[in-house]
Amino acid sequence: xxxxxxxxxxxxxWAPGLSTLLNYQSAWLLxxxxxGLALTAILVPVGMGYAEASGLxxxxxxxxTLIPLxxxxxxxxxxxxxxxxxxxxxxxxxxxxxxxxxxxxxxxVLLAGMLAILSGVCSMLIGLxxxxxxxxxxxxPIRIGFLNAIALTVLAGQLPKILGIPATAxxxxxQLAHLLQNLASGQSNLVALLxxxxxxxxxxxxxxxxxxxxxxxxxxVLATGVSAWFDLADTAHLSVLGRLPQGLPHWQFPxxxxxxxxxxxxxxxxxxxxxxxxxxVLSRALAQRGGYRVSQSQEMVALGLANIATGxxxxxxxxxxxxxxxxxxxxxxxxxxxxxxxxxAIALLLxxxxxxxxxxxxxxxxxxxxxxxxxxxxxxxxxxxxxxRKVEFALSLTSFVGVALIGVIxxxxxxxxxxxxxxxxxxxxPYFAVLARVDRTKGYHDITRHPEGRRVPGLVLFxxxxxxxxxxxxxxxxxxxxxxxxxxxxxxxLVVVADAITDIDITAADMLASLYLxxxxxxxxxxxxxxxxxxxxxxxxxxTLDLIGHDIFAPTVGNAVNLYRTHHAVDWKDWxxx
Length: 578
Known about the structure:
The chain is mainly alpha-helical. The chain has two domains: 2-208 and 222-232 and 254-395, no CATH class; 432-577, STAS domain (Transcription Regulator spoIIAA). 64% of the residues lie in helices and 5% in strands. It has 24 helices and eight strands. The protein has helices at residues 2-14, 16-22, 29-53, 59-75, 87-101, 105-128, 140-163, 172-184, 190-209, 215-229, 232-235, 258-290, 296-312, 324-330, 337-353, 362-376, 379-388, 390-406, 408-428, 473-485, 506-521, 533-542, 545-548, 557-567; strands spanning 83-84, 319-320, 432-437, 444-446, 459-464, 493-497, 525-529, 553-554. Strands 4-3-5-6-7-8 form a six-stranded mixed beta sheet. The chain has a two-stranded antiparallel sheet with strand order 1-2. The N and C termini lie far apart (83 Å). The relative contact order is 0.13.
């Protein structure tokens, strides 16, 4: 008994969702039931649509919807976050598994399951090792370009369904060429086109005018009913879902080769980073509105466990949903019982109701996925970046072009490489300035922004706005000499304004020693203002201070100016001394 209660006390740490369920209040039940049923209306068509967009049979979308809801209800720290198939991951999954599957549906299912397991393991490692900061590399420009490319890629992949022509694998150009070729030869199906376009228009219209209505469910039920009533599969050759396997998913470990695992691993890492970014932002927002706190590490562990379980249940990689979670929230969800209600409804559908879906037109599933793509595409964001900051627009455009034309994984890694180059360039060429005194204004300011500023005769105040390290040491030395050469009066003392210098490595310390000797030959003193204590300690440990001096540091720029005026008689008065 003692061991039981000891285990119960540990629940908030490793199973916060289960702890919430053990302390469940009866007053929450009705709202969770209603929210769960409302959520199910979206989960079913979206799950099937995203499965087909990932290159898998629709039934696996239901498996990938059912399992995460149960796992997250136990291990998830957020009370109403919804996990499941995600539109932004569909193109990544398809790009990874379809080339390896080589047309085999059974092999595609196995590869998708292994990809989910690998991404789950990566997510758990990120959570346990607290490496979530890696997701910060996926900056806003990269994500906007990525999402726009994903939207375009998925759109091209779903248009054949709406047009009633056979789908094809391959990149964006291959899909567009296949689409145009079939259209030119008159292979499209007018009934499929009418069904898909009408469904898409209704989904978008209901989402805008009646956001609280179960628009997706209404469209799916209406289209399925019309298709079954008029037997459009036979009379109009309309492609429909067909009979789905009945019953709950059975557990199996996806047996693939080590070569396949190595091929899938980079994509699994990318999926885990993308999922972490979406999940952490969404869970924090929900926690803030709900007045509770969530652990991002536990969030990643829960996401990882959900992906692993989904992969073992013939599903595919999943993430948090920024479209279905608000539905649960708006419907009044209080706890993860909402997700459990949704999971129960899907389980009942799998056991007894799959026959109801066999007349569902594939064009409708294509419309569901296209509507999701249109919701996260952000062309306006790229235009705004072009106006505000050309460098970040270039990163976003590189992400877009790379993902759309080269490949999802290749495009992301190319963009990340560019990001690292930009970071290195910014550290290599940081901002620096010569400072001057501006009358009736506190402090000392950049002369390029205040050309009217007055400079203390014989004193150069040189500000460096970055750490000093091997890549920018030579530039620092060059710009110091240039500031001295362009000074209005012969220089007696150089003061390095070092408030922004957070570190100095050994190479940069050697550069400072060389600079000190050069300045000494010119009769110029080297001083520092505002250098942090830990950076000064580094110079002391390097032995640099034994050469350049231990008493050449001033706490502030103003103090450095006053010390200079004390040591050297100069004809200069501050504006507040007049």
